[in-house]
Amino acid sequence: MDVPLAKFLTWPPFYTLQPNLDTQNQQLALWSQVILDYAKNNKIYIATMESFDGITRNNELNRFLSEELKDILFKYMKKQKFIIAEGLSMLVFWQKPETWAEMIYRWASNSGRIGTVETVEGLVSGDETTSEEFYGMPVNYAIEVLKTLQKSKKAEMFAVGDSYAVKFF
Amino acid sequence: MEVKLTESSRPVLIPNEVIIKEQSKVEVLFEYFLCSDSKQGEYYCYLTSHRLVCVSKKNFAIPLAYIEGQKAAGGFLRTHRIEFNVRIKALPQYLHEYMPQALMPSMISMKFTVGGRDEFLTQIDTACRAESWNKPIIVEQKQIKVEGYGIGGIKQALKEDTHDRNQTLSAGFKDLKSLSDKSRELKNLASKLKQMDESKDPELQEIKATMASMGFTSGVTKETAGKNYIPQLARELCDFIKEPLQNNGGLLPLLDAYCIYNRARGGSVISPSDMAQACELFESLSLPIKIRVLAGGTKALSLGGQAVENLTRSLIEKIREVGHLSSKEAAEIFKISTTIALECLLLGENQGQLCRDQGLQGLHFYYNLFLRN
Question: Where is each GLUE N-terminal domain found (chain B) (predicted)?
Fold first, then answer.
């Protein structure tokens, strides 16, 4: 979506829930983009409703997203698979799980890890991956990503004690 | 013989003329001296204080002054009729303009196919006896006595003027009965005030505006129109409301129209249900005004079918020009009511042309950049 989002953020109607459904859909799509960009720039993997207050409030205009609009927005984002709810918090996928999974698999094959077993924790916070983009990813977030690799039969996860390990194929 | 009609086919009244009685389905027969009779067909008849006006495809009016020897005819097993002789007489000078000389039949017979004869006849008798046409038109032309000159004189004159006006007004408002009686006098005062165009005094301007919206002495009533009350009401309403409509961008909420119309009627107020019924008839009577239910449920009178759409289009144009508008701002710019303005803005929103901003300053509408980038 090539829309200058900055323009919308200084435009008052952006902060009011639009009753016309066509308009509302477009509004929600634009807001999703704003939230994902914000999450990406601030490396927010796990968020609560309050995590985005920095962007959903515009003090200069004296406008902010109402609870109702936030609620509708997060439901929309869930439907679009931009977020996955997990208890009171949510996982924010500013990159698609498949994109993340591809990154991890590329690292595994480049560093000759195909066929070996790695702990998930080691994968995202170990010394081997500090220069990778997925370094610093929370473990439960990484598990969601690895599930897509498991689905495409490129990896398999299993429990080791109370943590998880993964084997790449 | 011919007669001027308003756009909705009611007679245009002569100054001081009042409609006394209306009757539908009257068959009229002309009898000429030494000639054969000529059937004129079925008419809708108005008895006014000055004339008998018959409206159909071909219209004619007979000055009451010409009517002589009116009597009831017909009866047992025959349709009720009124017969009278027509004798041309000299009319007061001012009436020549309204009642041009014409060939008149020597006798006229009116057949009342749906009843109402006796009452009509009584009213003809009364009206002929009253001879309203011989009464001069009251035009207030008072000489103001100026005692002294300069500012003192002007002040004195103004004071007298105000005093007279106050008396007329306070007597008029004493009770509703006398209000209707006074309505003619008030109307004269109103038209007099209207003529004082050179005046720039804001207070006087306001009085002028108020008086101008008061105003006709011969509103349709159940007594005059009988069974035809609602259709005739629809016609009169249509004639009257046209001007207010034009001044309001072609649209008025039904409630506003009701208030304006009733104020003009003075004492004889109509009920909301009469108004609603009359409005329902606009279409079947093919009158130029339509009643519309707008998106938000507001009922409104509109001039022509496209008034709402046209207004909405100009509102959107304006918003593109100035950025955003609230319904109140829109109402001020386009001189329409806020209800109508809001309805049009909501219509624009429904069409996806506009979107809203609910801030602390109220609801504002913007051009829809979400969909129209």
Answer: 3-140
pLDDT tens, residue by residue, B309-343: 888 899 999 999 998 999 999 999 988 888 888 88
Distance of alpha carbon B22 from alpha carbon B225, whole angstroms: 5
Residue of A2, A9, A17, A18 for testing the chain B interface, max B β-carbons within 10 Å: A18
For B361, which residue in chain A has the nearest alpha carbon?
A62
Calculate mean pLDDT across residues A127-156: 83
Q: Is B349 on the interface with A (CB under 8 A)?
A: yes
B361 interfaces chain A, CB cutoff of 8 Å: no
Domains in chain B, CATH or no CATH each = 19-134 (2.30.29.30), 150-212 (no CATH), 223-303 (1.10.10.10), 307-367 (1.10.10.10)
Q: CATH number, domain at A24?
A: 1.10.10.570
Name the closest residue on chain B to residue A62, using Cα atoms. Answer: B359
Farthest CA pair distance, chain A: 56
Domain of A69 in residue numbering reads as 5-92
A70 touches chain B (CB under 8 A): no
Nearest to A141 by CA among A86, A88, A99: A86
Please, what's the b/e burial string for A128-143 (b: 16 or more CB within 10 A of its CB; e: otherwise)? ebeebebeebeeebbb
How much is the pTM? 0.61
Cβ contact B356–A18 (<8 Å): yes
* Residues from chain A contacting residue B350 (CB–CB below 8 Å): 20
Measured CA to CA, the distance from residue B175 to residue B178 in angstroms comes to 6
Whether residue A85 sits in one domain with residue A12: yes
